[in-house]
Amino acid sequence: MFDTADALVLARIQFAFTVSFHFIFPAFSIGLASYLAVLEGLWLKTGRQLYHDLFKYWLKIFAIAFAMGVVSGIVMSYQFGTNWSVFSDRAGPVVGPLMAYEVLTAFFLEAGFLGVMLFGMEKVGRRLHFAATLMVAVGTFISAFWILSVNSWMHTPAGFEMGANGQFLPGDSWLAIIFNPSFPYRLVHTVTAAYLTTAFVVGGVGAWHLLRDRANPHARKMFSMAMWMAALVAPVQIFLGDAQGLNTLEHQPQKVMAMEGHYESHPDGAPLYLFGIPNEKEQRLDYAVGIPKVSSLILEHSLDAPLAGLDTIPDDEQPPVSIVFWSFRVMVGIGFAMLGIGVWSLLARWRGRLYDWPLLHRFAVVMAPSGFAAVIAGWITTEVGRQPYVIYGLMRTADAASPLDAPAVGSSLLAFIVVYFAVFGVGVWYIMRLMSKSPQPGEVGVKRGDKGPIRTAGFTPGPTQNPGDGEKLPRGPHEASRER
Predict the structure, then answer these.
(1) What DSSP letter does each residue of 220-236 carry, written as one string?
(2) Burial track 413-430 (b if 16+ CB lie within 10 A, e otherwise)
(3) Whole-prediction pTM value?
(4) N or C: which end of the chain has fewer CB within 10 A?
(5) Please, are residues 2 and 411 in contact by the beta-carbon 8 Å criterion?
(6) What crossing angle do the helices spanning 217-251 and 358-366 adopt, rounded to 10°?
(7) What is the pLDDT of residues 287-323, one digit of tens each?
């Protein structure tokens, strides 16, 4: 079946598939962990049961999303060794420690407090439980910090030196590696995207229940909080995206050329193409619809600023323009749609119709998954725009792959597709089922099973009984051994 396929292409498809599946869960859990911390903090401050109900409601959803994020992320670590062993060998001295720091800090922090957060509400004090929730939220941010540091270094490598065997070795300062030139911009932009992703999911769920019952107090509170987030953070996210774009222009100009569809150079100001069909064979943008000189205004803050095009880049150095061009427009389009609904919500709030404007609620329901589409489109723009390099300017993707035959990669790809859609499809279905039910007063959070862990030694706890009530007490292991 895969005898005529390209092993490199299959390896890239496999990693893209697993990363895309994985990315949606951290993008949700990062924002949702912070939202849970806000809800619990408001409950402790105000004492309102409504915040406690919402906390318990979203805690169940967070537990499932967090678990699926962890499981889907483990697979990618194995792919570094199976499909990308050359990359692992050469970049391991730099990339390996950063990924280990993520485990030693973020993962251990989350694992240490997650159990208290999920099951400890009735077993520890309120302040201690709130501290555990905060630690989980901080852990999700730290995880994003290290992973984005690794990925950003691959885009803007810094602070390294080349070893005699061709390995990338740490230089004099790890800070130069961690805080590489693109990292601060990408960290802030990505984490903000995670917060917006969660806000639109919460807003969509709140809108869904408002359409069914406008007087639902839980739905009102969810929708109101989400729309404040959209109105305040969406414009900030657009500004952050612009800042990252300027940083990308400085360090990866051909990526920006592909994003803008600039096949040709523009010495007197470049147009902003709103639409067009990239023709990579002829190196032109067919059916282009653009605004003259606006691209130069955005990127160089001058209408007449010259901008170089892909005609200055060798053909074998150019990224796949069609993919980057369209994924960038999907991301930007969704971003402005988010801004639009945020402004719309402000108008509805000002007119006193935030909770009884059905058209706004229907649009919010449609926009509920928009954050996931935006983050995946942004990831595609970023990663495909880096091609043909895996470490920008230094190591080509074709030189990073393992020496595997196509059938070996293709068979594992098919297995991933089947398992992922089966396992995570069920998980997503269950999350949506939970969301379809409205929060209730006295909401029940995550429940433990009736049976505890299996004990391999010691006494097995049983019901407390008095020796004189005619029932035997549980036997200890030494008594049982003497009777035998």
Answers:
(1) HHHHHHHHHHHHHHHHH
(2) beebeeebeeebeebbee
(3) 0.86
(4) C
(5) yes
(6) 50
(7) 888 899 888 888 888 888 888 989 898 888 889 999 9
